[in-house]
């Protein structure tokens, strides 16, 4: 059995090397990939779709949610962007191939210097990193620095990220992170008999720990082998032979695997509703759409402010409202999926503050009809959403369980939401204040109607912000 399994993996290696390195571009993933996207997997303390797991993993290791093969000298490499799901799945199926590919992102120059790596490169192969004699030394430095209990410097943050990247890659290669089978439920007879072999007999969080592919045996292992074969068969660019007729479709293979996994513990295995909603959220990128609409609204309101034409005012309001609705929809999806207010980390706080800024901008713009208030709010919302969208290493957008200190929806709502939305009012005042400074630099009189209206708007924003901050504290 082991010999057959290794032989199959070698065939996978050859097939995938051909598709990534030299295949002609295809029409896109097979429809069965949609079924694989929705395969439930346990990771980071929660159950998520395989698509989400793959996106987060590739973002961590490679720095992007999609992969494009590096062009070879003869220009024969396939230039099509590969989805995270395709890449992460083949880390497990064809590790020998990926050990030779530049997939480990490393940008900090001082860490490259410490590892004696080329400073002109930002990505390196796993083989390079594991074979580097200095990799273990910098990890030892990190362990020593952690013992001091000091805040990690940028250098040690980069070392910690590298340590996580390599450990995650290794765990995926070994199948340890593919936790796709729920543990069997505890039977009363097992409890009375003191059977310690059952997974749910383990303490704490471990009692609901799902079983990884490295641990699975029997029909489930055999069925996943069929899923792997169907997956390779469904990859774009893989030539189909007459012997492939016996390989079931990927959708059928995944469905049969899910049925077997669900039979292990029907109560723990999720239904398709929440999984599909999360896949929709990850594919939609609502906050990315929102900032594109916000920047359009800001430009239109700038024209309205200078030209006073009604068409610009109506168009600016329309785009701002549409952006706000998309922004709200994205928040609603996160709240539904996490079951809590979306302010548990810096990413969510930045997005929430942008939402609150637009809420106050709508209110004060409707009261003053000054044009610049809605423009300032749209600028702030654009800035916040761009930062959240473009710096995933700093602002983690993944859906994570709450930290213990925040595990009270009452106080998370009453205390944290109130305080953070006060920042929205202050942020709006900051944006308007900077616009006023720009006019002062240009020589605008401090008692001019335009500057005075800005001063009034700033004062109103500060009033609201102070009241909300005081209430939250």
What is the topology?
Blueprint: H1 2-22, H2 32-37, E1 40-43, E2 46-49, H3 50-62, E3 66-67, E4 82-83, H4 84-93, H5 95-98, E5 104-105, H6 109-114, E6 123-124, H7 126-131, H8 133-147, H9 154-173, E7 179-181, H10 188-193, E8 211-212, H11 219-234, H12 250-264, H13 272-284, H14 286-307, H15 310-338, H16 346-368, H17 372-390, H18 409-441, H19 449-472
Antiparallel strand pairs: 1-2, 3-4, 5-6, 7-8
How would you portray this structure in words?
The protein is mainly α and 473 residues long. 64% of the residues lie in helices and 4% in strands. The protein is built from 19 helices and eight strands. The chain has a two-stranded antiparallel sheet. Strands 3-4 form a two-stranded antiparallel ribbon. Strand 1 (40-43) and strand 2 form a beta hairpin. It is globular, with a radius of gyration of 27 Å.
């Amino acid at each position: 059995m082991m010999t057959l399994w290794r032989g199959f993996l070698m065939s996978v290696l050859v097939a995938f090397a051909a598709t990534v390195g030299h295949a002609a571009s295809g029409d896109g993933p097979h429809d069965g990939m949609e079924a694989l996207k929705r395969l439930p997997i346990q990771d980071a303390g929660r159950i998520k779709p395989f698509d989400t797991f793959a996106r987060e993993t590739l973002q961590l290791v490679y720095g992007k949610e999609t992969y494009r093969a590096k062009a070879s000298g003869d220009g024969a490499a396939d230039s099509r962007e590969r989805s995270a799901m395709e890449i992460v799945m083949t880390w497990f199926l064809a590790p020998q191939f990926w050990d030779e590919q530049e997939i480990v992102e490393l940008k900090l120059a001082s860490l490259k210097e410490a590892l004696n790596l080329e400073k002109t490169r930002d990505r390196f192969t796993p083989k390079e990193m594991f074979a580097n004699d200095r990799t273990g030394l910098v990890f030892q430095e990190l362990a020593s620095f952690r013992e001091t209990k000091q805040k990690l410097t940028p250098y040690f943050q980069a070392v910690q990220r590298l340590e996580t990247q390599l450990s995650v890659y290794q765990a995926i290669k070994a199948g340890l992170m593919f936790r796709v089978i729920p543990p069997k439920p505890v039977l009363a007879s097992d409890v009375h008999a003191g059977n310690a072999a059952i997974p749910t007999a383990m303490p704490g969080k471990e009692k609901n720990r799902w079983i990884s592919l490295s641990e699975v045996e029997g029909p489930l292992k055999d069925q996943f082998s069929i899923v792997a074969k169907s997956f390779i068969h469904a990859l774009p660019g893989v030539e189909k032979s007459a012997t492939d007729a016996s390989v079931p479709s990927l959708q059928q293979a995944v469905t049969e695997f899910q049925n077997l996994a669900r039979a292990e513990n029907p109560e723990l295995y999720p239904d398709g509703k929440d999984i599909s909603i999360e896949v929709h959220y990850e594919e939609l990128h609502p906050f990315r759409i929102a900032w594109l609409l916000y920047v359009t609204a800001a430009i239109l309101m700038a024209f309205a402010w200078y030209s006073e034409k009604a068409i610009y005012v109506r168009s600016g309001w329309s785009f701002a409202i549409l952006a706000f609705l998309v922004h709200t929809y994205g928040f609603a999806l996160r709240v539904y999926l996490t079951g809590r207010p979306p302010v548990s980390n810096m990413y969510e706080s930045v997005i929430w503050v942008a939402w609150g800024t637009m809420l106050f901008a709508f209110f004060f713009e409707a009261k003053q009809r000054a044009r610049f208030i809605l423009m300032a709010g749209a600028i702030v919302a654009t800035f916040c959403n761009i930062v959240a969208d473009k710096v995933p290493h700093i602002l983690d957008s993944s859906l994570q369980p709450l930290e213990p200190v925040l595990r009270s929806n009452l106080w998370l709502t009453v205390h944290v939401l109130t305080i953070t939305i006060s920042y929205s009012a202050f942020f709006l005042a900051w944006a308007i204040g900077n616009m006023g400074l720009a006019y002062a630099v240009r020589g605008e009189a401090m008692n001019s109607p335009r500057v005075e209206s800005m001063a009034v708007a700033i004062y109103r924003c500060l009033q609201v912000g102070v009241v909300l901050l005081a209430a939250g504290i």
